[in-house]
Specification:
Elements (H helix, E strand, L loop, with lengths): L1 H13 L3 E2 L7 E3 L5 E4 L5 E2 L8 E8 L2 E10 L6 H15 L1 E5 L5 E5 L2 E12 L2 E12 L2 E9 L4 H14 L1 E2 L2
């Protein structure tokens, strides 16, 4: 009987989008069970009016920042480089004075999978922003993670960004 209770409790906890646990803060578990990562202290899940492809968005206050994870079905024959360039181009079109930093796309990893990283700078609603993006593909899904902050907060935000990337784990 106690084994069943423990199993039910485990299943209830595992179904929660945010759970306590991992070193460094709470853990966000994707509602569809596809990925998880550690949430920096003080970050809160944003209310998305029209999530579209966005799986989750977090708001940070100290330093200010926005973190989003968007997912999309992978289209056969489309390379990781193309997905990353498309993401950077979409950001460039949506920001004023936007530019992809000269380093362009950089090879990286996310959750043990090959990834492409980039930085776009521009203005969003009258505020200068730096956006670090990383794009990876896993199990037929493309994941685009975007970290947005102000240039004067970038160094402080970077350590929180790195903690998320280091803890990001694909589950399916």
């Amino acid at each position: 009987m106690s084994g069943r209770v423990a199993l039910v409790l485990f299943l209830l906890i595992a179904a929660m989008p945010v759970e306590a646990g991992r070193e460094g803060g709470a853990v966000y578990l994707d509602e569809q069970g596809r990925f998880l990562f550690t949430i920096p202290e003080g970050w809160i899940v944003a209310d998305l009016v029209d999530p579209g492809l966005t799986a989750v968005e977090f708001d940070a206050t100290d330093p200010w920042g926005i973190f989003t994870v968007a997912t999309d079905d992978q289209v056969s024959g489309t390379s990781l480089d193309q997905y990353a360039m498309d993401a950077a181009e979409q950001l460039r079109r949506n920001l004023s004075n936007a530019r992809l930093l000269p380093d362009g796309l950089q090879s990286s990893t996310l959750g043990g999978e090959p990834a492409r990283a980039f930085v776009v700078q521009g203005r969003q609603q009258g505020t200068n922003v730096d956006i670090f993006g990383i794009v990876a593909s896993h199990a037929g899904t493309v994941y685009t993670l975007l970290f947005t902050t102000r240039p004067d907060s970038y160094d402080a935000y970077l350590s929180q960004e790195q903690a998320i990337l280091a803890s990001f784990t694909f589950l399916t």
